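Title: Prediction job returns without error message
Component: structure pipeline
Severity: low
Priority: P3
Assignee: unassigned

Description:
Job completed but the reporter wants confirmation the result is attached to the right record. Sequence as submitted:
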Amino acid sequence: MALETAYIQEKMTQKFGNKALNFSMSRDIFSFEATSDAIYEVIRTLKTEEDLNFHFLTDLCGVHYPDNDENHQFAVVYHLHNWVENVRIRITTYLNGENPEVHSMTDLFLCTNWMERETFDFYGINFIGHPQLKRILNMDEMVSFPMRKEFPMEDSGRTDKDDRFFGRTAQKI
């Protein structure tokens, strides 16, 4: 029997109630949200339940939404793949803008070690329980997080770039 998106939604809703929400098909990928306090258990369930079988984490990334309300300014997006049924899903969790933090997935998927460090390095999202959460690509001396949209992309003297076209406001730091 093929793994149906309705079945995944039913399993998540039964186990997590309103902590798993906003189920939809988005660009041919079944997507939903999980609250930040439940995301670890949601992903652990998707991996360990034999009838779900999502054993491969394809990607993990951060997103900054500076115009959203305080509790939805950052997001961590997880892409999982069930190789047996060839089903992919996307799970998003939103984080507080003042203190963006979420539980680390390194004990579930070893590949998240690099991805979480990269997300921390560029967005400042703290992954609780990560074995070595430190900068991975930027200099240790940096005090900012360069992918946050509060920082302009280019030198303000450039006339060929306009931050507004990249989802950033033209603010001076």
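Comment from assignee: result matches the submitted record. The beta strands are 20-26, 29-34, 56-64, 74-82, 87-95, 101-103, 126-128.
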